[in-house]
Design brief:
Distance between the termini: 75 Å
Radius of gyration: 23 Å
Helix content: under 10%
Number of domains: 2
Structural class: mainly beta
Strand content: 25-35%
Low-confidence stretches: 1-20, 280-288
Order of helices and strands: HEHEEEEEEEEEEEEEEEEEE
Mean pLDDT: 87
Bound molecules: 2-acetamido-2-deoxy-beta-D-glucopyranose
Largest sheet: 12 strands, mixed
Number of helices: 2
Length: 288
């Protein structure tokens, strides 16, 4: 690309155009078309390039600062060609009524999928386990079935947000391989069984929510290793037994909700880090 000082005025629009706008590689255009079918997304406009930012490929949502977008990462091949790959797909609150796309694996550079607050049903595709995702958000859909154990292979994952669905089954021990996980939000599903022992390894967690589930067993004492934890929300999770004294190791905890469980004992005394503590709601509370 030649953009000398002399020709700068003349050539700026040209230079900008060829750097800023590339074209999505054809395989990924086709993958987007297939995803549109699977999820029930009808208004993507394939007459313009999905990486153009034009038409409805980027759409502002009513909530300030929120957008639904297909985001691309483009790189210059040569003077006339810039090729793009999809890195993020966000389609929130659009009444999608299809199922989750296994086709996501056809985006080798994808790091984020956000399909929050739609009406998607069916199960989470185990194929996603082969991807290098950072963020998965499926909050507020109608998903059923278990969390595929293959998701434990996504060792890049930082946020796994599955709240407010109808997911069931045990929490897979393989999720203990998510050694970069920041937020694990599983509230309001139908999960059963105990919190797997492998979760002891999730020492990067800052936010763990399993409220409103049908879990069994106790609050594991290994949570003392989750020292970065800000939020621990296990309201009405089904957990029972003594409140582990090891909670006192969680000195970064700001938000603790243990209410509506059959727990006994007390939060250790002399522990003042909390901003919000909800553990005295009476329903099933039994004080030791
Ligand atoms: C875009 O891709 C390049 C090359 O793969 C990578 O170095 C860069 O970090 C990516 N940028 C974004 C914003 O993902
Ligand atoms: C740029 O690369 C494409 C694809 O490899 C090729 O078809 C085209 O001729 C190249 N253009 C230039 C100016 O080198
Ligand atoms: C998903 O919802 C559609 C209707 O929107 C229904 O026909 C289909 O049976 C549902 N599938 C599952 C697995 O619940
Ligand atoms: C991942 O999602 C969170 C919100 O859940 C957001 O703050 C963060 O920027 C996202 N990260 C990436 C890499 O998109
Ligand atoms: C993914 O996970 C499954 C089940 O946990 C395992 O059997 C498989 O070997 C893993 N695949 C890769 C590529 O790591």
């Amino acid at each position: 690309m030649i953009c000398s000082q002399v020709f700068l005025l003349l050539l700026v629009p040209l230079c900008t155009a060829s750097f800023a706008f590339g074209v999505l590689v054809p395989e990924e255009v086709q993958a987007l078309k297939d995803i549109a079918k699977t999820t029930g997304k009808t208004d993507w406009d394939f007459s313009v390039d999905p990486c153009s930012g034009k038409s409805n490929w980027v759409k502002n949502l009513p909530l300030v600062g929120e957008e639904n977008a297909v985001t691309c990462n483009c790189s210059v091949v040569n003077a006339t060609l810039t090729l793009c790959h999809v890195v993020s797909i966000a389609v929130k609150e659009e009444n999608l009524q299809g199922t989750l796309p296994a086709e996501l694996v056809r985006f080798p550079y994808l790091y984020e999928i956000d399909l929050s607050r739609n009406y998607l049903n069916g199960t989470i595709p185990k194929e996603w386990g082969s991807m290098k995702l950072l963020n998965i958000s499926l909050r507020g859909n109608r998903l059923t079935g278990p969390i595929p154990k293959e998701l434990g292979n996504i060792t890049t994952l930082k946020n796994l947000i599955l709240e407010f669905n109808q997911l069931s089954g045990n929490l897979p021990p393989e999720l203990g391989n998510l050694l970069q996980i920041d937020r694990l939000q599983l509230t309001s599903n139908k999960f059963t069984g105990e919190i797997p022992a492998t979760f002891a390894r999730l020492t990067t967690l800052t936010d763990f929510r399993v409220a409103d589930n049908q879990l069994s067993g106790t609050i594991p004492s290994f949570i003392q290793r989750w020292t970065r934890l800000n939020k621990l929300v296990i309201e009405a999770s089904g957990l029972s037994g003594p409140i582990p004294s090891e909670i006192s190791f969680l000195t970064n905890l700001l938000d603790l909700d243990l209410s509506f469980n059959k727990l006994s004992g007390q939060i250790p005394s002399g522990y003042y880090g909390l901003r919000r503590v909800l553990y005295m709601k009476p329903a099933h509370w039994t004080s030791a």
